[in-house]
Design goal:
The protein has 18 helices and twelve strands. By secondary structure, the protein is of the alpha/beta class. It folds into three domains: 61 residues, no CATH class; 117 residues, Alpha-Beta Plaits (2-Layer Sandwich), CATH 3.30.70; 255 residues, 3-Layer(aba) Sandwich (Rossmann fold). Helix 2 runs antiparallel to helix 7 and helix 9 packs across helix 10.
Length: 485
């Protein structure tokens, strides 16, 4: 997925990003609210050596201090420093736990040691830091003091001349109670929450796009199948209540079916198919609605058309027009009626052959020699025969019937049909030698700007009146309308 595709995915799945952002910000605010404030007190020590006034000795002492100061910093957190501090200040903690709250740093090329103490109370943090500095100074001077050699002369104070430590530590900056906590940091936590939410949302969108194998655009469908895209039918929530498009209407759906009709007529100029199967991979992709409105559109263009309901498992063509369903294709196939006896007229150029009674063996009936004869008879009477068939993957009805047709249209639902389903469906048609005329991308999101014929204000016409075809196709009261199938 390239950057452009990723940005489009973010725009399409923006609710996911918003939810992740809100959750991350909420978590950051909750962490800030429930965190105990921590204060930090800091003191600084200067390490000096006792030398004479000679410049050489001063330089040697400076080098000696810099060489040893890194080792001194490691002594700050030892028990010989923390244990006296705990006892002196009567702290309710152990020397080890106190050591975990102390940090000692000796900057390079200096003789300074910075001691930092963290505590939940600012005054106590300052007291601990000053006490640690005092105990640390005493510990270092005691460790650096040379041992008295046997027989050495003592001074009046009782100490020999060699008992003095060559190192002395002085406090250059005493710790004071901090005015504000160092943790938590509300702004930093909020920024971290925002960044984490955006990254999490983007990651989830990328993951969903990677795992989502459905086809989002007609261009992607064309690239995947290498078949011509004959039409893109926009999504309309009113289809279950009004499946038929108006002959004189200028809605997006009406213009889309006119474009499908035109593309179908011009796609096979030299060898126009007269018997066309309209099918899909799985149920719910809009194949029945496509077959019905394509037949209506052809009839409106003056083409003598017969629409056959060849879905003998879930027939929906007759209810869409409000016609009688009990007599139709199955009645003709078993020899109980002739084609002209059960064909129902809808307008001047459109005839509908309903499914008839649902048989127990639809696959055998549709692949029979009698079915081939019926299709040949219909092709002799009408210029175009449109067959609404069952989905390809759940049942084998359409595979046997499609081999008797001269072409097939594959309906694919936007953002619903997976690539594997489309691949399997096209392979099923190829196996029986069916010529796939192209694909119809149904229930596509309506793009902004009115791509389907209006182009903004251009082409806007007054509200159309009901066409003659629709007047004759008005459903009687109580008749169930067919939705998208």
């Amino acid at each position: 997925m390239d950057l452009h595709g990723f940005l489009k995915a973010l725009a399409r799945r923006w609710p996911t990003v918003v939810v992740c952002l809100v959750l991350a910000i909420g978590a950051a605010l909750a962490a800030t609210s429930f965190s105990t404030p921590v204060y930090e007190a800091r003191t600084q020590l200067f390490v000096a050596t006792r030398t004479g006034e000679d410049s050489t000795e001063l330089n040697q002492g400076q080098s000696f201090s810099q060489a040893r100061v890194q080792s001194y910093a490691a002594i700050v957190t030892t028990r010989q420093v923390t244990r006296p501090v705990v006892k002196e200040l009567r702290l309710r903690t152990t020397p080890e736990k106190l050591a975990s709250r102390i940090t000692a740093v000796a900057p390079l090329n200096t003789v300074l040691i910075d001691i930092t103490v963290r505590d939940t109370k600012p005054e106590r943090a300052a007291r601990i830091a000053n006490a640690v500095a005092q105990r640390f100074s005493a510990a270092v001077e005691r460790l650096e003091a040379p041992k008295r050699a046997p027989g050495s002369e003592r001074s009046r104070s009782g100490r020999t001349h060699d008992d003095a430590s060559p190192v002395s530590l002085g406090v250059t900056q005493e710790a004071v109670a901090p005015t504000g906590p160092v943790s938590p940091r509300p702004l930093l936590n909020l920024a971290a929450g925002v960044l984490s939410g955006l990254l999490l949302g983007a990651g989830l969108v990328a993951l969903r796009e990677t795992l989502d194998t459905t086809l989002k655009t007609s261009e992607a469908l064309g690239e995947f199948t290498a078949l011509p895209g004959l039409g893109t039918i926009p999504f309309d929530r009113n289809v279950p209540r009004q499946p038929l498009v108006s002959a004189e209407g200028h809605s997006k759906r009406a213009e889309a079916f006119r474009k499908l009709r035109t593309n179908l007529q011009f796609s096979q100029v030299d060898d126009r198919p007269r018997i066309i199967v309209v099918t899909s991979s799985v149920p719910g992709e809009g194949k029945t609605n496509t077959a019905v409105n394509l037949a209506l559109s052809l009839a409106e263009a003056g083409v003598s058309t017969c629409l056959v309901d060849a879905d003998l498992r879930r027939p929906c063509v007759a209810p869409a027009f409000g016609l009688v369903q009990d007599a139709g294709l199955t009645t003709v196939l078993i020899g109980q009626a002739r084609i002209e006896d059960v064909t129902q007229k809808v307008g001047g150029r459109l005839a509908v052959l309903a499914s008839g009674a649902v048989p127990p063996n639809p696959t055998e009936l549709l692949a029979s020699a009698r079915m081939e004869e019926v299709l040949r008879e219909l092709a002799d009477i009408y210029e175009v025969v449109i067959l609404d068939t069952a989905p390809l993957l759940p049942v084998a009805d359409t595979v046997g019937l499609a081999s008797l047709a001269q072409g097939a249209l594959l309906v694919v639902r936007a953002a619903k049909t997976s690539r594997d389903q489309v691949r399997t469906a096209t392979e099923s048609l190829d196996c029986v030698g069916v010529r796939v005329l192209g694909t119809v991308f149904s229930m596509a999101p309506v793009p902004k700007g009115g791509r389907y014929g209006t182009y903004g204000s251009y082409g806007e016409l007054p509200a159309p009146r009901a066409s003659a075809l629709q007047k004759e196709a008005v459903m009687p009261a109580g008749t169930r309308r067919a939705g998208e199938k």
